Amino acid sequence: MNSMLCDYLVQILTARVYDVAQETPLEYAPNLSTRINNKLLLKREDMQSVFSFKLRGAYNKMANLSPDLLQQGVIAASAGNHAQGVALAATKLGTRAIIVMPVTTPLMKVNAVKARGGEVVLYGNTYDDAYAHARQLEAEKGLTFIHPFDDPEVIAGQGTIGMEILRQYQQPIHAIFIAIGGGGLISGIAAYVKRLRPDIKIIGVEPVDANAMYQSIQAGHRVRLSHVGLFADGVAVREVGEETFRLCQQYVDEIILVDTDDTCAAIKDVFEDTRSILEPAGALAVAGAKAYVEREKIQGETLIAVACGANMNFDRLRFVAERAEFGERREAIFAVRIPEERGSLKKFCECIGSRNLTEFNYRIADQKEAHIFVGVQIENRADAAKMVATFEANGLKTIDLTDDELTKLHLRHMVGGHSPLADHELLYRFEFPERPGALMKFVTSMSPHWNISLCHYRNNGADYGRIVVGMQVPPHETEEWQAFLDTLGYGYWDESQNPAYKLFLG
Q: Are residues 249 and 316 located together in one domain of the fold?
């Protein structure tokens, strides 16, 4: 057996975590198990005192520091659960903890760290800025940096979750599903489980727009992402750790990618079984387990999902509830064109039949045609395809917009129509930090020759804002527009050819 593997086994078995962490329950999820025809157990790390597994690794690292180093204090960079874990561990060990957080960090998270005894330093707009400043302070003040994932003692602390799982459930386990951010959690669990029960599959789960470990495994080397989606902020990591990458290459069987809708549906699933609300990163493992069952068509197996965190901003629940219906394939959205003539609307309603409407928007387009934007409750995705076929068979041209991000985020909340004044209009979606001045930066850095012809913004209670902008850019200034996009520093998507935009607004 590889010596590093033996080291991890010993380190996990002797890890010092239970001064601050509790052995969390492995809980049966009855409703979800029935739905997926497999036995699903939830490892309830959301029940820790900081509502996340992170205090295990942080405390194990700090408890193993020499008395001299511990007395000098520790420092970390984090905008989330790691910060709370370090602060709590420092208080327990009687030492000082400085946590560097981006200035964009929501006040709720800053206050949570202060409440647990941490000294907060707000610096920079991104985690990378905060991390660089923390390393600078580490050198200046003689502090010890506590890495959130790329440290053997942190990894060993998280690995105690694997130890608990195998002790709590000694019957056959088909697979354990684990969220991946930097990789510390899955590395620790995998190093332990694969040593004792190599038959158990270890399956990582990442968001499709924050998949640094997946891309790194595919490439055979660590890949740094230029942009990460922020919905599952607990795993929004641009580059995985060196040691975590090595361990994942060695022990992780596969990585499943899930989208925002899948994650929202998983949050709802766990709520219905436990009446607890997981944060998006905390629900990734459940979303991955559901996707795996759907793909593999397995039945009667035992699956374990690590519910790794519940630090949810209450304001985000509106967005989660809205998108869970899509993730469960319970709602479909269609754009339907109907002839502007008597009986057309009746024909449309006959096509809907006895299904429940979730949304209905009607607008006359011209003398020949009217446009309908409609949301409908469905049984599954096949039901949506059947509806499209029914509309088309009745002469009603239809576009299925259920999987279209522009529609789900913006168009369904917008009114208006086509404008004869909006010539040379480009349509772009942007994702930028939810902080004062973000929109001002956008407006002031663009050319004064360009005109904003359309704009929609909706606060989803997240740490970032989503906005769609129509911009009138003359064709000969296309290169200048692209240069503006590239230097802006915000995530963006070109929606100028989106069929829903063309139909309702373009």
A: yes
